């Protein structure tokens, strides 16, 4: 098998709201769109983020009406402190303040208009 691209596809109620959130606050651009669909990309990201309107008949029937509950969309960044400041300056509420785990993961979380959690992570050397 040879993987040529990666994407995460999330069911949401309001596709333009989630799409706009990633474009405005995380520098994604819309690569493709249609009624009930938005595919977003960044040149430096290893995956596309795709939003689909809940209930689309093209989705398998056992989960076409479910939302993206419990899913984290995670981006690893170089300077988490700067990102936290930037997001606050843009009026984005941090739904989980910057936290450092014993294993060296520093992270914060924000929530988009559809309840999708976007987590930013920076890896640091764990404290001894």
From TrEMBL:
Domain VOC: 4-123
Pfam families tied to this protein: Glyoxalase (PF00903)
InterPro entries per UniProt: Glyas_Bleomycin-R_OHBP_Dase, Glyas_Fos-R_dOase_dom, VOC_core
PROSITE patterns linked to this entry: VOC
Signal peptide region: none
Protein name from the UniProt record: VOC domain-containing protein
Species per Swiss-Prot/TrEMBL record: Cryptosporangium arvum DSM 44712
Lineage: Bacteria, Bacillati, Actinomycetota, Actinomycetes, Cryptosporangiales
């Amino acid at each position: 098998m040879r993987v040529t691209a990666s994407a995460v596809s999330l069911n949401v109620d309001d596709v333009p709201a989630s799409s706009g959130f990633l474009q405005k606050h995380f520098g994604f651009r819309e690569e493709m769109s249609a009624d009930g669909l938005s595919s977003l990309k960044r040149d430096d990201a290893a995956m596309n983020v795709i939003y689909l309107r809940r209930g689309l008949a093209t989705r398998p029937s056992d989960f076409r009406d479910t939302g993206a509950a419990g899913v984290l969309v995670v981006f690893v960044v170089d300077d988490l402190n700067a990102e936290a400041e930037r997001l606050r300056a843009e009026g984005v509420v941090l739904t989980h303040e910057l936290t450092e785990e014993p294993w060296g993961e520093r992270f914060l979380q924000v929530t988009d208009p559809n309840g999708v959690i976007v987590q930013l992570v920076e890896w640091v050397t764990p404290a001894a």
